[in-house]
Design brief:
It comes from Glacieibacterium frigidum. By secondary structure, the protein is of the alpha/beta class. About 35% of the residues lie in helices and about 30% in strands. It has nine helices and twelve strands. It has helices at about 40-50, 70-80, 95-110, 115-130, 135-140, 150-160, 180-190, 230-240, 240-245, and strands spanning about 1-10, 15-25, 30-35, 55-60, 65, 80-85, 90-95, 140, 165-170, 195-200, 215-220, 225-230. Strand 4 and strand 5 form a beta hairpin. Helix 2 crosses helix 3, helix 4 packs across helix 6 (about 150-160) and helix 6 runs parallel beside helix 7 (about 180-190). The longest helix is centred in the middle third of the chain and has 15 residues, at about 95-110.
């Protein structure tokens, strides 16, 4: 589903990704772990098409389609979702307006009919209730006045409504207490399906107690240095990145 081959990328002229190769199949959850500065967030931004991140080599395909040839909004319409480590606030724009606009923009690019107001409200109520986000919060400006946990739950609602083919989640567990972590993990698990894939970027093993990955990859200096099953995350927790990736 998501195929990354020998990917090289720079930021401000500095090489960050140095030949990263990774394949995430349909129905799978892959976790990427690594030390600070390894290139984890850079990978997520490159996949999403963020400005300032220059690809200097390699390829990325989503369902066989050249992802790197598409602008950011077309990557989203093709089925890519990026969950941010630090979700931004958007004053003056309600969650409801933001999400309905995003959903219908993607549907339009795919040649699908737009969601009616009634259809959209039915969909978002179901997803928001499942993630403990009230309708009052959905009427508020995007992430304004939200706690860290509420922002991450809000992102899970966004993901559930948009139903991406591939979700790239950049440290979604960052800054969460145990209750919020469980809610967010439940949101990720609810999206698991045979026709979807998830790339979960994290520093810590604890989220993987709730979202059990099919594969765990160790990213060091812009390359995947080691891959394994869920037990690799426990080994990293015990021994650290230097010993495991050596």
């Amino acid at each position: 589903m998501l195929e990354i081959t020998d990917l090289h990328a720079t930021v401000d002229g500095k090489a960050i990704l140095n030949g990263l190769t990774l394949s995430v199949g349909a129905g799978q959850v892959h976790a990427i772990m690594g030390p600070n500065g390894a290139g984890k967030s850079t990978l997520s931004y490159v996949l999403a098409g963020r400005a300032g991140y220059e690809v200097t080599g390699g390829s990325v395909t989503l369902d066989g389609r050249d992802l790197l040839a598409l602008p950011a909004h077309e990557r989203a319409a093709a089925g890519l979702f990026l969950g941010l480590q630090y979700p931004v606030e958007i004053p003056g724009v309600s969650n409801l307006l933001f999400l309905r606009t995003a959903l219908n923009a993607q549907r339009k690019l795919r040649g699908e009919a737009e969601a009616s107001g009634a259809e959209f409200m039915k969909l978002i109520k179901v997803e928001a209730e499942g993630l403990g986000l009230s309708m009052d919060m959905l009427k508020r400006p995007v992430n304004v006045g939200f706690s860290g946990g509420e922002k991450k739950r809000n992102e899970m609602v966004q993901m559930a409504v948009l139903r991406p083919r591939v979700a790239v989640l950049d440290e979604t567990d960052s800054g969460l207490d145990i209750d919020a972590l469980r809610v967010v993990a439940d949101g990720i698990n609810r999206m698991r399906a045979p026709d979807r894939a998830t790339l979960l970027i994290t520093h810590y093993q604890r989220v993987l107690d709730y979202v059990v990955p099919d594969r765990v990859h160790v990213l060091v200096a812009g390359r995947i240095e080691r891959s394994g099953g869920p037990e690799l995350a426990h080994q990293l927790e015990r021994e650290g990145y230097v010993r495991v990736a050596a």
